[in-house]
Amino acid sequence: MIFGRSQRGKPPVEPVTLKILVAGGFGVGKTTLVGAVSEIRPLRTEELLTEAGRPVDDVSGVEGKHTTTVAMDFGRITLREDLVLYLFGTPGQERFWFMWDELSEGALGAVVLADTRRLEDCFAAVDYFERRSIPFVVGVNCFEGSARYPVEMVRQALDLDADVPLVMCDARDRESVKEVLIGVVQHAMAQAADRRRPVTT
Q: H helices of 39-198, where?
């Protein structure tokens, strides 16, 4: 592009943008996931954990964590010239959940990251997307040293509907994250197709 015009004389393409949320409990790997796959340097709104926040910040199981997302993480992936995916990582702590309504506006779907050591931390995210009928995929972030459980056992523990995809992933690995995001898009498209299908009596 030179001065806003393409070198071959073609008008610039206005891309379609899709928005996907990345949600889950505190310290589950949301910021890591966005950073692993974003083509730009992710926008992060992290602050240091302090003694003042100790009574409300439960760091059980993530004692080595020293920062927390207070608004959102933002990343971008260009799938093709006319299609761009925006990723918004939500804050995991309850005191920042008021941000979720704003971030979920217009979202195509969501990833709910889960940690098998603290599965209960992702219940709030699962409930949130179920109540708002936002398509979501559960990605079990396989931390080093954590126990591995069969997919169906994790599904049962989370009490997921049968049509909600559940996949094992590594939030640090670009290819693994891409597979999760592809799963979200496919799931959202399938749900949209179901809603358009005429009801037969």
A: 99-104, 123-131, 151-158, 174-196
